[in-house]
Amino acid sequence: MRIDKFLKVSRIIKRRTVAKEVAGAGRITVNGHAAKAGTEVNPGDEVSIRFGKKTLRVKIESVNSAAQKNEAALMYTTIEEVYHDD
Predict the structure, then answer these.
(1) Is residue 66 predicted with pLDDT exceeding 90?
(2) Are 62 and 43 in contact (CB under 8 A)?
(3) Domain RNA-binding S4: where (predicted)?
(4) Which of 14, 27, 30, 82 allows an S-S link to 50, with CB 3.0 to 4.6 Å?
């Protein structure tokens, strides 16, 4: 599944267009490598997303293209959430 779609379906980012913009700005990495919106992700991958003063790192548990709202949080495990002062 594409990273932009995963972020939308898992509800980490609410809209796919926003996920594409974040990826385009170079604020997403997959397994330590810069990711574009079309980068494919699989279970076991580690994703890091920079949101302004916060960086969220998650491990992908499953990729379900039609996850319901109550299933979305089960698609990933939060590894760390770091807040920056800069």
Answers:
(1) no
(2) yes
(3) 1-64
(4) 27
